[in-house]
Design goal:
Elements lengths: L1 H7 L3 E7 L15 H11 L3 E8 L11
Parallel strand pairs: 1-2
Length: 66
C-alpha cells in the first residue's frame, strides 16, 4: 500500500486491528505481534500514518482489552 501511495503522492491514516477475542471470524494481528508490526510500519512505510489500535472482542468480554 505504501508503494502505491508514493505513486499518487498521498498519505493514509491507518489503525492496526488487534485480535483480542481469539475468534476465527474476526481478523487482526495477535497482541504479541503488535509492537513489531507498528514498528515496521513506522520505519518502513512513510506514507502510512499510524494513528492507533482498534479491536473487536467477544461480546461482553472486557478481559481481552486489558
Amino acid at each position: 500500500m505504501d508503494k502505491e501511495l508514493v505513486k499518487i503522492d498521498k498519505q493514509l491514516n491507518i489503525l492496526v486491528q488487534v485480535s483480542t477475542g481469539g475468534e476465527d471470524t474476526k481478523a487482526g494481528v495477535e497482541p504479541n505481534e503488535v509492537a513489531d508490526l507498528v514498528g515496521f510500519i513506522r520505519l518502513n512505510c512513510p506514507r502510512l500514518r499510524f494513528m492507533g489500535l482498534m479491536s473487536m472482542g467477544k461480546i461482553g468480554d472486557r478481559e481481552g482489552f486489558k
